[in-house]
Amino acid sequence: MHTEETAQIQVIPADKEKIKKIWMTAGILGLVTALEFLIAFTVPHEMETLRVSIFVAMTIVKAFYIVGEFMHLKYEVKALIWSILIPMILVTWLLIALIHEGSAIYNAIYL
Questions:
Q1: Tens of pLDDT along 9-37?
Q2: Tell me: the pLDDT tens digits for 59-110?
Q3: CA distance 51 to 36
């Protein structure tokens, strides 16, 4: 005699707190992105340096928020957070310095 076993699917009730946290995170990231678009279309082109600086700052804010929430870094010990944060700050400073020096050399040679 042949018997068929039916698979039992158990539906787990939704964890409302986790879903609320995900929507809150999406809302905050969406708000920062909306502010970036607002700045992109309202800040005049004559203030290009200010606009780019704001974009970089907002991108860093979004990156920290994403790393903190989705990679759970904000729940780690402070030493680990600082061991990631300090090199990132130094690399950012290095990039800014190289871009500044490179533009100064370009302006001295070609302008």
A1: 776 767 888 888 889 989 999 999 999 89
A2: 888 988 888 888 877 778 888 888 888 998 899 899 989 988 998 898 999 8
A3: 9
The answer to whether the CB of 29 falls within 8 A of the CB of 65 is yes
Question: Does pTM top 0.85 for this prediction?
Answer: no
DSSP one-letter string for the chain: ---PPPPP-PPPPP-HHHHHHHHHHHHHHHHHHHHHHHHHHHS-GGGHHHHHHHHHHHHHHHHHHHHHHHS-GGGS-HHHHHHHHHHHHHHHHHHHHHHHHHHHHHHHHH-
Distance from C-alpha of 79 to C-alpha of 67, rounded to nearest angstrom: 16
